[in-house]
């Protein structure tokens, strides 16, 4: 009834020419249809969120519950890393570090290389008790990372490790002055130190960039003193021989 009352009459518009029906019943029903079929921002958000959830769920299923982002695991999506970031780096002496060797399952599992502590808790199979590399847990055994002597070299004492890359002098009648030999020795020593540094860097990089591990802190008071650590037997055996080098050149 109210619509009827509001409809303009023919007489009221007769003086202004032909009758127009701008807001006719036809127009308002078109508006309703538009409103029904229009896509609002909320609809778009709903669709995007649904797609993201579905995609994440599929990834979770396909990656055997490993990741909701198809293997991409930025640090802020890993709870232990976020927790560590909030708490700040751990600072441990070698004896404090030894507790984190996997024996106490309530504590994280730590490995240290060149004074940097890495959390390897996600790989208890390897570093935990009974694991193939458990001897690296709860200590800084940088020397063993370079020499491969897993029994003798579980220490951070790197003094003299470079010897493993220096040739064994097994040629007696070399035609060289002692000055020439000294220069060569110095060059070889520099190269050997660079190789040790390279090996240490590779291992720190391995743990720092590993998708399951992360940096947890630093070892302090791990200074070395006393007699230099002797080169382990297997590293000694792997040293190059001067005679072989002379033959090659
Ligand atoms: C300088 C010598 C070596 C060092 C420092 C070293 C160190 C390591 C480390 C730290 C891991 C654990 C990697 C991870 O966290 O995923 C590992 C794994 C492994 N390494 Fe070595 N490694 C050495 C030599 C060797 C050699 C010579 C072999 C073979 C005979 C070997 C066989 C393996 C195997 C099979 C794994 C996998 C372990 C597992 O799944 O239980 N490694 N190595």
Automatic annotation (TrEMBL):
Pfam families assigned: Cyt-b5 (PF00173)
Domain of life: Eukaryota
Compositional bias segments (type: Polar residues): 8-17
Coiled coil: none
Region annotated Disordered, chain positions: 1-32
GO cellular component: endomembrane system; membrane
Domain Cytochrome b5 heme-binding intervals: 92-172
Family: Belongs to the cytochrome b5 family. MAPR subfamily.
Protein name: Cytochrome b5 heme-binding domain-containing protein
Species: Penicillium concentricum
């Amino acid at each position: 009834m109210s619509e009827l009352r509001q409809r303009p009459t023919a007489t009221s518009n007769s003086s202004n020419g032909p009758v127009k029906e701008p807001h006719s019943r036809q127009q308002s029903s078109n508006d309703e249809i538009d409103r029904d079929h229009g896509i609002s921002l909320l609809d778009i958000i709903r669709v995007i969120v649904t797609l993201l959830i579905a995609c994440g769920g599929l990834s979770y299923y396909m990656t055997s519950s490993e990741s909701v982002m198809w293997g991409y695991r930025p640090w802020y999506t890993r709870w232990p890393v976020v927790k560590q970031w909030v708490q700040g780096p751990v600072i441990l002496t070698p004896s404090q570090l030894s507790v984190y060797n996997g024996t106490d399952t309530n504590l994280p599992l730590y490995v240290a290389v060149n004074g940097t502590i890495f959390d390897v808790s996600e790989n208890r199979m390897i570093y935990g008790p009974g694991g193939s590399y458990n001897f690296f847990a709860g200590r800084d055994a940088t020397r063993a990372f370079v020499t491969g002597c897993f029994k003798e070299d579980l220490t951070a004492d790197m003094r003299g490790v470079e010897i493993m890359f220096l040739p064994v002098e097994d040629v007696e009648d070399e035609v060289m002055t002692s000055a020439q030999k000294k220069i060569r020795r110095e060059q070889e020593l520099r190269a050997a130190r660079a190789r040790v540094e390279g090996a240490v860097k590779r291992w720190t990089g391995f743990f720092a960039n590993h998708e399951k591990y992360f940096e947890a802190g630093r070892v302090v008071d791990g200074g070395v003193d006393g007699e230099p650590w002797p080169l382990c037997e297997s590293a000694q055996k792997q040293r190059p021989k001067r005679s072989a080098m002379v033959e090659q050149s």
